[in-house]
Amino acid sequence: MMNFSQMSTGATIDCARLISSMDADIAINWSGGLHHAKKLEASGFCYVNDIVLGILELLKTFNRVLYIDVDVHHGDGVEEAFFLTNRVMTLSYHRYGDFFPGTGSITDLGEGDGKYYAVNVPMKKGIDDDNYLRVFKSVKYTL
Amino acid sequence: MKPIRIKMAHQLIVNYGLYRKMNIYEPHLATFNEMTGFHSLDYINYIDSISNKSDTNIVKQCIIIYTLFIYNNLIKIILVRLIVLFLQE
């Protein structure tokens, strides 16, 4: 358990470091993305939030970070972590309405300094590729 | 994360030939210090402690399943395979 978390988190932090040091333009951790984990609890098969730790690593070098979440579930752990800051914008596309984890309403925009730095695109199930792409592009370009 | 997913990811990476265009790194193991950058120390200690326990109560409460163990091994095998493939290229 600990070993798994260490590998998954270590890989994401390494990815962040590679980007910070300009050794890579794109870095992927195929086993990362545990976006539901909270500061004090595990949730939805996520134990240690490697994404938050990766973003924190990036923030050491970069002023601002845009986080895009295309998982079918809302990226609640990451949104919660950066809800109050304007240095990280979280953008999540997800299925919403009687669906895990139940957060990610379009009206959740962030608070305090982070107001308008949390963006949620809730969708109903059954969207096809073309429509998804259209929504994805239009929201991304607007931002 | 389910073991089947990492298996699928591995097959896709290999069959699309993606690994030919990438550098493959072996990650370091994140330290306690790194993890507590976000999580509370108590929580990380808890995760560490349940790793070594076979307390059924805890297992029932959390979704810590034995597949995680398999998953851990799988990930290692995949990594090694990827590195071998990479070196062959």
Task: Give a verbal description of the structure.
The complex is a heterodimer of chains A (143) and B (89). Chain A contains 4 helices and 3 strands. Chain A is of the alpha/beta class. A 3-stranded parallel β-sheet of chain A has the order 1-2-3, with helices on one face. Chain B is mainly α and 89 residues long. Chain B has 5 helices and no strands. The radius of gyration of chain B is 17 Å and the shape is elongated. The two termini of chain B are 29 Å apart. About 13% of the residues of chain B have low confidence. The chains are: A alpha/beta (143), B mainly alpha (89). At the A-B interface, α1 and α2 of A face α1, α3 and α5 of B.
Helical proportion of chain B, percent range: 55-70%
Task: Determine the structural class of chain A based on helices, strands and strand pairing.
Answer: alpha/beta
Q: Give the neighbour order of strands across the main sheet of chain A.
A: 1-2-3
Please summarize the sheet with the most strands of chain A: 3 strands, parallel
Please report the number of helical segments of chain B.
5
Structural class category of chain B: mainly alpha
Mean pLDDT across every amino acid position of chain A: 92
Proportion of residues in β-strands of chain B: under 5%
Alpha carbon gap, first and last residue of chain A: 38 Å
What does the main sheet of chain B amount to?
A: none
Largest binding interface between chains: A-B, 34 and 34 residues
Shape of chain A: globular
Low-confidence stretches of chain B: 56-67
- What's the order of the H and E elements of chain B? HHHHH
> What's the β-strand tally of chain A?
3
Estimate the mean pLDDT confidence of chain B.
72
- H/E element string of chain A? HHEHEEH
CA-atom Rg of chain A in angstroms: 15 Å
Q: Which bin fits the share of residues in helices of chain A? A: 25-40%
Strand content of chain A: 5-15%
What's the assembly state of these chains? heterodimer
